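Can you please make up a protein's amino acid sequence together with its fold in token form to help me picture the idea?
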Amino acid sequence: MFNVKISTLMICTLISFQSFADKGKFFDHSITVIFENTNYANAIKQPFFNQLATQGALFSNFSALTHPSQGNYVALTSGSLNGVINDKNVDINAANIVDLLEAKKLTWKVYAEDYPGKCFTGNINGYVRKHNPFISYLNIQKNTSRCANIVNANQFDIDAKNGSLPNYSFFVPNLKNDGHDTGVSYADKWYSKKFAPYFADPQFMKNTVFITTFDESGVSFKNQIYTSIVGGNVKPGEIKNAVNTYSLLKLLEENWNLGDLGKSDKTAVSIPLIWL
């Protein structure tokens, strides 16, 4: 009987510890959705992007890091461009946010539209590898259990319905829905149709933040992009502080006390206190 009591206590303690480990300082779940190649001034005019800007925190002085696209995706997830200077396929031997998340026993998943699964490293239909940085990290690409966390985007609604979304979600729209081949107006309409029900659900948003951003501007020296953060714990308002792509990575690191990757994430400007 004594051993049974001890075992029960240990199990309860383990469950409690795991629940605590999943908790973030500001949120428990983050969902990052990235769009393509649009100047801030054009994005903010779109109805749904503008709605999110008023519903949450709008960053009106937010800069991407480079042109073309791929380097920004890599920087957002590893704290460095890691030598990426174009959109050609790259294999990167570098630590990334997945390493930090897994070290803290936190869960992650990439939801990519048109992605065929099975650690696919090419391009197909509307899916392009350059918009999914995780498959370019060798410590994910060459690890079948890790790259199994890169799934087709259809799984997102299933996971949301089952209450099994991970702590960190990275959603990759296809080339039409991210605006790359169609323009920002098309992307705005798609985003509203796909995600508006989630944004409107207080229970879903209670401990969740949506990070909506772009990879880069259009033709612009400043490389200013639209970025908003919406969540149940987010105070609506415009943030004029100068922040950039590295700041979003730092926000996740600070939220879950992940530490840092020792690159530009370490010295990045923190996202200001936008929390209720």
User: Anything to note?
Assistant: Residues 1-19 have pLDDT under 50 and may be disordered. The longest helix spans residues 2-22.
